[in-house]
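Subject: Protein entry, chain in single-letter code together with its fold tokens

Category: Structural biology, sequence-to-fold work with a learned token vocabulary.

Notation: Tokens come from a learned vocabulary of local backbone shapes, not from coordinates.

Start of record: The labelled sequence and token lines come straight after this line.
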Amino acid sequence: MAVFLSSFVNRIDKKGRVSVPASFRSALGGDATGIVVFRSLQHDALDGCSIAHLELLSASLEKQDLPSDLFELIETTIFGGSVQVPFDGEGRVMLPQHLMAAVGIGEDVAFVGRRKTFQLWNPQKFAAHEAAARDGARARDISLSKIIAAASAHIDGGKP
């Protein structure tokens, strides 16, 4: 499965259109007709994904025995707050004004890959968030080699 990688800052044109990065369009798959966006539950940003990813989330929710209040929160905030945004012929979308205003996106938007989803940020807010995340990663001594070693140990039954 393709993943969303990297970060890009793109300008929103006078008509309100913004180009979705080509690598993100590729990760969505050749049959994708657009993206789905909704307000992040954790950050002052928009979350973005394919409709297929939301369908997977929906199927996953059906398989869990969640308390009704949690189920209600997820349905209201994610599914109720989602907007399908179609691509134009050049791979651009028009982000909903109410969502842009809610997270402070103005003339530019930062597209940020997050493996199976991506986020859309006000570039200045994202710069601050990224700096804090890097500080947090350093403080927790996170490294790729440690992540891989821990996963390998888990697969091998706890053996290093």
Remarks:
- The longest strand covers residues 108-114.
